[in-house]
Automatic annotation (TrEMBL):
Protein name as annotated: VC_2705 family sodium/solute symporter
InterPro entries named among the record's database cross-references: Na/Glc_symporter_sf (IPR038377), Na/solute_symporter (IPR001734), Na/solute_symporter_VC_2705 (IPR019899), Sodium:Solute_Symporter (IPR050277)
Transmembrane regions listed in the UniProt entry: 12-31, 37-57, 78-100, 106-127, 147-169, 181-201, 378-400, 412-433, 549-566, 572-596, 603-621, 646-666
Entry keyword annotation includes Ion transport: no
Species in which this protein is naturally found: Ideonella oryzae
UniProt KW Transmembrane keyword: yes
Family: Belongs to the sodium:solute symporter (SSF) (TC 2.A.21) family.
Location (main, coarse): membrane
A matching Pfam family: SSF
Keywords from the named record: Membrane, Transmembrane, Transmembrane helix, Transport
Record membrane topology: Multi-pass membrane protein
Taxonomic path: Bacteria, Pseudomonadati, Pseudomonadota, Betaproteobacteria, Burkholderiales
Length: 687
């Protein structure tokens, strides 16, 4: 109990100090300290705290490094899981997705939250009863062989690497904006130091106690600005309560924008631009050469006129991004054309936030087909996110750290509580931002646009750009291209809130990205050092060598992930959701059947994991634009039942279950010791 009392006192004091820090930063802003300095302080101060925790938590003991000594209380493990879970996708991307897709985005809230129910019922207590270090450990022991362990290791690395790329991409966005660095790539590698400072030194022990501190930062950073914005718009300090009133106001603004002649003209001009791209696709070689010459002339003109350095660098980056071959150009133009066509609709392609087609049989066939497809995709996404949550190795590893099976189950409940605090706020935030943009930004003259538009355009024009398409000098909604990944980070500036809240939100997003990235990098490095090197290559390796190897591999993986993130492969939410589908198809069937069906054997698990993962990966590669370009897929896109690539796991998971079942029944049953092992897992003692 003394250990828990010390933890309570330590983190209570930390919370009070953090609130005093915010007050001090607010005073600095009132005294006229430049925003750039405030941004640097918000970036540096949390990193210093995380570094101190990392240094204090440094260890070479395997039990402490891999599972924090198995002494993390349920409350704090729940906070750590919450921080591990509330990644850049949740903090940065969720409200932005709800902004762009309306009610359809609630699939993320339902799927991610519901997944923890599966974790509590099906996996967490049984994995804690198993009592080892990693998920491949469980697969290798349950299915008795190095082959299931190796497949689990490869799948762990694949889904965790995709996930960590998204987190480091988010770190790059935040670092670039806070420090005003012109290069997004430099921002990524600067932020990488914060990712490494804890995971490299102390493994799971340092990461756990840092994640508790990071959760406090991220939840305060998420709630305070939303409450402030709610008070500004409605006078109500509870955003969830103000949500309904503002949703009605948003619906009225949507009706006004749909009838606006300027918006209708922009739609017509966007369709004209799509036709230009269609011509370029048909004459790819000549069009590509013309684009190269135009980009070179723009760079040359900027240099001759001695333009600002950031403008020259932006033009040079644009020139460097021109495709190298006509085939690559065609793939890029097809994506751009599809984006233009999606924006060339009322409300810039966004659905009415509160309106859904009711599926009435009296509707047109096209309306009925759209409704059916949207319903299938909604349900498929909820399914993939739920089972993906129950299959993510970096989340399941956390339940090895509790003192007992009982606390493992209790920590799932605490995790849900800490996660719901953010998830119940995200829908309200999306509506409040949409109201702010529809009523205070759209309709503004271009020469009076707020500064945040120019600031974020410099960070990444692909995430935010404006262009006077119809040349009337007034910003229409269709002329504002804004990505889901920056809406939350830019929210204080969009709403005209004090700059200190911009720094606070960025610090919260940084905490969310760092906490998840730390856990993911540790998962990957542990899989390589513990499951591959120690379990498969050198079983007699001493513990200090294993821990040191894990640290070196962690550094190498982090550098590789940072390089991939610097290429901006896809938006954060797609990368994270892809990781969920991969984890669901690779792990969920093998783990659940491994616990609840004694007849499941080695060959069934091997065939099931390979087939489930293979189907999911193949569907993504053949249907997602970025992956098609990466792997050079030229065949036409064929969606199965109109299911989007983000939900590819809907096909892989049933395949995995079916293949494990069939192959296990067709091959000899596992030996008696395996059946006894399963029985011991099935009836965990709550000590």
């Amino acid at each position: 109990m003394s250990f828990r009392r010390r933890l309570h006192g330590l983190y209570l004091g930390y919370t009070v100090c953090f609130l005093l820090f915010l007050l001090g930063m607010g005073l600095l802003e009132r005294w006229g300290v430049p925003h750039q300095y405030i941004g640097f302080i918000f970036l540096a101060a949390p990193l210093v705290i995380y570094a101190i925790v990392g240094v204090l938590g440094r260890t070479t003991d395997p039990s402490e490094y891999y599972v924090a000594g198995r002494r993390v209380p349920a409350l704090y493990n729940g906070m750590a899981v919450g921080a591990d879970w509330l990644s850049a996708a949740s903090f940065i991307g969720l409200a932005g997705t709800l902004y762009l897709s309306g009610y359809g985005g609630l699939a993320f809230v339902m799927g991610w939250t519901g997944g923890f129910v599966l974790v509590a019922l099906l996996l967490a207590p049984y994995l804690r009863k198993f009592g080892q270090f990693t998920i491949p450990d469980f697969l290798g022991t349950r299915y008795q062989g190095q082959l299931p362990r190796f497949i689990g290791l490869v799948a762990t690395i694949l889904c965790s690497f995709v996930y960590v790329v998204a987190q480091i991409y988010g770190v790059g966005l935040i670092t670039t904006r806070l420090t005003s660095i012109a290069s997004f790539e430099i921002g990524i590698f600067l932020g990488l130091g914060g990712v490494l400072v804890c995971s490299f030194l102390g493994g799971m022990r340092a990461i756990t106690w840092t994640q508790v501190a990071q959760y406090i930062v991220l939840i305060v950073a998420y709630l305070v600005p939303v409450i402030w914005l709610s008070v500004n718009q409605t006078g109500v300090p509870v955003p969830q309560w103000a949500y309904g009133e503002q949703l009605r106001a948003v619906s009225q603004a949507e009706a006004r924008l749909e009838a606006d002649p300027g918006e209708q003209e922009v739609i017509r001009l966007l369709r004209d631009q799509a036709r230009v791209l269609e011509y370029k696709i048909a004459h790819a070689e000549a069009a590509l050469q013309a684009d190269r010459e135009k980009a070179w002339r723009e760079v040359d003109a900027l240099k001759r006129s001695r333009a600002a350095q950031y403008e020259i660098q932006a033009a040079e980056r644009s020139m460097a991004q021109i495709p190298a071959t006509p085939a690559q150009a065609v793939a890029q133009w097809q994506t751009e054309r599809q984006d233009l066509l999606s924006r060339a609709r009322p409300l810039a392609g966004m659905p009415e936030h509160a309106a859904q087609f009711d599926g009435n049989p009296d509707g047109t066939p096209a309306e009925q087909a759209r409704y059916d497809a949207s319903r299938r995709n909604f349900l498929a996404l909820v399914f993939c996110l739920m089972v993906g949550t129950a299959g993510l190795p970096h989340i399941l590893m956390r339940f090895y750290t509790t003192p007992s099976v009982r606390e493992a189950r209790a920590s799932v409940g605490w995790s849900l509580f800490f996660i719901v605090l953010l998830y119940m706020t995200a829908p309200a935030l999306a509506v409040l931002i949409k109201y702010q943009i529809f009523t205070h930004v759209v309709g503004t003259r271009f020469d009076a646009l707020p500064a945040w538009i120019a600031n974020w355009s410099r960070v990444d024009p692909g995430l935010l750009s404006v262009s006077d398409i119809n040349h009337d000098g007034v910003l229409q909604l269709g002329e504002l291209h804004i990505g889901s990944d920056i809406l939350v980070l830019a929210m204080p500036e969009i709403a005209g809130l004090p700059y200190v809240l911009t720094g606070l939100v960025a610090a919260g997003g940084l905490a969310a990205a760092l906490s998840t990235a730390d856990g993911l990098l540790l998962t990957i490095s542990n899989a390589l050092s513990h499951d591959f090197y120690y379990r498969m290559v050198s079983p007699r390796a001493i513990s200090s060598r294993r821990v040191m190897l894990s640290k070196l591999l962690l550094l190498l993986v982090a550098l590789c992930a940072a390089w991939v993130a610097s290429q901006k492969p896809a938006n954060i939410l797609f990368l994270v959701s892809a990781a969920f589908s991969l984890a669901a198809s690779a792990f969920f069937p093998a783990l659940v059947l491994g616990v609840f069906w004694t007849r499941a054997n080695r060959w069934g698990a091997v065939a099931g994991m390979l087939s489930g993962l293979g189907v999911t990966f193949w569907y993504m590669v053949t249907t997602h634009p970025w992956l098609r370009g990466l792997f050079g897929v030229q065949s036409p896109v064929r969606l199965w039942w109109d299911i989007d690539p983000i939900s590819a796991g809907i096909f892989g998971v049933p395949v995995g279950f079916a293949v494990i079942t069939v192959v296990s029944l067709l091959t000899p049953p596992p030996p008696a010791e395996v059946r006894e092992f399963v029985q011991r897992l099935r009836y965990p003692r709550y000590d």
